[in-house]
Amino acid sequence: MPTFDTVYINVINAQNSDLDFGMVIRVRLHRDSIESVKSLLRKFAEVLRGDGRFSFHMRSISRLGGPNDDRIHPVDDGVVEEVREYARSLGLKLLELSLPYICYASWLNSLVIMPDGTLSKCTVRLYENINRVGKLNDDGTLTIDENKLLWWARGIINNDLKAAACPAFSKEGYEAIKWLI
Description:
Helices cover 36% and strands 15% of the residues. It has 2 domains: 87 residues, no CATH class; 77 residues, no CATH class. A 4-stranded antiparallel beta sheet has the order 3-4-5-6. It contains 7 helices and 6 strands, in the order αβαβαββββαααα. By secondary structure, it is of the alpha+beta class.
């Protein structure tokens, strides 16, 4: 089954449950994706409209210094705001960030569930060993590597706002992401 289908079915199954949780659906925009993102938002609005457990976090795709940066085509803030307004008009809830900025990967209760059930923390360092913090088991329970999980939370644990803002890169990454703060 294609990755999107797996993720979409899992979101729908979560929506159909009576569980108390919060889920942030991250959407990254680039110059060629605006219409497909709007289509995606319409699809989600059909089933998630009015369900406060789900929120959408939209921003431009970023150039993070990798070998494919020249193939990354970010959009300006005006385009992002236009798409955010479109999502609001569909009745979708948007994630509102507060200051100081703390990366989702720093929070102990924030996990990325990969299509194979692997639990990760960071969507930038997806395939690195330090990012694989556990597994979603077939019975719905979690197996967690506590040492790896605590490594990601070290900024919050130690009251280090720079590490909390970007635990993946900590001090060297802070300069690259300080525009978010």
